[in-house]
Amino acid sequence: MAYLLMFVTLLHLITLAMLFIATMEKSWWVWDGMENSDLWYDCRYDNDTGTWLCASSKETEWLQSVQVLMVLSVVFSSVSFLVFLGQLFTMSKGGLFYFTGLCQVFAGLTAFAAALIYTLHNQEILQDSRKLTEGHFGYCFMLAWVCVPLLLISGVMYIHLRKKE
Fold first, then answer.
1. pLDDT tens digits for the chain (165 residues)?
2. Does residue 54 contact residue 3 with C-beta atoms inside 8 Å?
3. What is the DSSP letter of 28?
């Protein structure tokens, strides 16, 4: 049981880090490696100065919904981890981690909704950007999709996990 506890804790920390990276990094849509777009900025690489020049993304309703859902996912997962640590030290023997599991499941569902909206509405989200056929989804978008099953699995594991002493 101690190995399961360590595995679930490690899985939780990994998914939390992946969620944070997917939300904050600048690679949800990429064009030829010299230009990319994320949830917050549109960036171009300047060869003369060797730096990224970024401007705020044009706010659309779809982009705002993806932003809110990804931030909510990070918040749910963070709250879930903090509650888990609290329950680990205060819960009586034999107790279940229901609230922790439900927070993880909600984090997974909000990340799923955000990634799905970005998948289906990327043309509306990137409307003023370059031609979409020349670009592709970036690694942060992929991380968001990878987080969805990991969050749901860890949520179910938390729900079935019992405290032993």
1. 678 778 888 999 999 999 999 999 878 888 877 888 888 888 888 888 888 888 888 888 998 999 999 999 999 999 999 998 888 888 777 677 888 999 999 999 999 999 999 999 888 888 765 676 678 888 999 999 999 999 999 999 888 877 665
2. no
3. S
Residue type, 7: F
Q: Which pTM value belongs to this model?
A: 0.88
39 in Cβ contact with 145 (< 8 Å)? no
H-type alpha helices, 1-138: 2-24, 61-90, 98-120, 122-125
Paired tokens of 7: 């595995």
Domains of the chain, CATH where assigned: 1-29+59-163 (1.20.140.150)
